[in-house]
Specification:
The protein is an alpha/beta fold and 537 residues long. It folds into 4 domains: 217 residues, Rossmann fold (3-Layer(aba) Sandwich), CATH 3.40.50; 176 residues, Rossmann fold (3-Layer(aba) Sandwich); 34 residues, no CATH class; 34 residues. Helices cover 47% and strands 9% of the residues. The strands form 2 sheets. The protein has a 6-stranded mixed beta sheet, with helices on both faces. It has a 5-stranded parallel beta sheet with strand order 4-3-5-6-7, with helices on both faces. Helix 7 runs parallel beside helix 12 and helix 12 crosses helix 13. The radius of gyration is 26 Å and the shape is globular. The N and C termini lie far apart (54 Å).
Length: 537
Amino acid sequence: MKNINPTTTTAWKKLQVHFQETKDVHLKELFEDQNRAVDFTIHWEDFVVDYSKNRITKDTRDLLVELANEVGLQDAIDSYFGGDAINATEGRAVMHTALRDESDTAFAKAEVDTVKKAIQSFTQKIISGDHKGTTGKSITDVVNIGIGGSDLGPVMIVEALQYYKNHLNTHFVSNVDGDHVMEIIKELDPETTLFVIVSKTFTTQETLSNARTIRKWFVDKLDEKAVANHFVAVSTNLEAIEDFGIVSSNVFPMWEWVGGRFSLWSSVGLSIALAVGYDHFEQLLHGAFKMDTHFKTASFDKNIPVITALLSVWYNNFYKAQTEAIIPYTQYLHRLPAYLQQAIMESNGKSVDRNGEEVAYETGTIIWGEPGTNSQHAFFQLIHQGTKLIPADFIGFRKSLHNNTDHHDKLMANFFAQTEALMNGKTKAQVIEELTISEVSRDRIDVLSPFKVFTGNKPTTTILGEKLTPKSLGSLISMYEHKIFVQGVIWNIYSYDQWGVELGKQLATKILKDFDQISSASHDVSTMHLLKYYKNS
């Protein structure tokens, strides 16, 4: 990929001038154009993406697309899908898209298809009850043991697809906190539980600590031989897996060209397939593939991942808005913001560009959010009347899954109302009129009116789907994956390494050893003080 500092481009300089010319324009003024909603809406498959309530004009969009072209986005997309080693610091391709590629020319197609067939066969045996535990009982519970991408993706998808779940109870263990592990396993029956250990290297401290604790609990209840019928692994470390007691037929491989935070489409998604059935897992992959195709082929001005990424750059680098809120109006997606926190912040939280030089501009955004309408009663006050500009994605669906139209109409009324309120706000004149109608005294109106004014002009993007299905969910997640990629290309950073994760892990290993010899340990004064307090209290 090209190494271009975006701030040196002609388009960036034009955007700086354009920003100064338009930054004080209110969205209400922009909506004097009656065609605005049509001009700033993308219809694709079962989705409508309305980005008209953003602080942009057609000129803004044109200049942002010009920026994308000037930094070589199309060539970068070709390298991305072509299997080039765009994760250059680790010398790897970034090919999670190959896991859902339905074309005959898909990257590593034979390998991927072989693993898919193994997942399909295994999940069908577990779900049907053909696979028995060591005492002859069918499996009733599945425990996924992993962390980071080996946990956040699977748990988010399983929660999101609760409506499609089968009879298996699915649990997730991630935190190295022993209390968390014990709370999960204390109610489980080892005779009917399957444990899925997800660790590419089979050395991740949190995952292996949890796996060993669970294994000891399990063996104490049953015996060593039973491990073979109740533990499976998603990993590449065959020697360590064998030492653990897992048989080779219960090992599902991973690939170096699939990054952890983008791995739910791979055998890391085994727990997903177990929870919702392999057919639904395939639909998830299909939905992602459809978005992949859209991203590869649509012109940039009608390309959902490109447009959403360009909007993010516009706010982050010109308005200096450092955070983005993700607000799904469905409880099923309550884990989506947490999933996207890792996907986006671990990818684009970089301060060195692809030339190895420190950047002098903002890169990654801080991602946060909760489902509506809960979030309306929590942090919306700050979005509406606070001092910070917070662009927000509102995600909703036309149809509910349980067909409760009364509840769904109320939910979606709030969905539409919030974006309208954030856009329009409420003027002082409107406040005074409302208070006057309510027969509030003039003196009281003078006191209250400043507090009840909403400036509006708060940007939102509305992502409206037909219904939450495995397919639509796959498309939604794929959209955000490609948004991450586009942001990284424009910011001239490597989105697919995560060296920032390593330092704390290295120090944790050292401190763990130092617990036995604190007097001779070497740390800063604060850490030494805390270590002594921790071990001596």
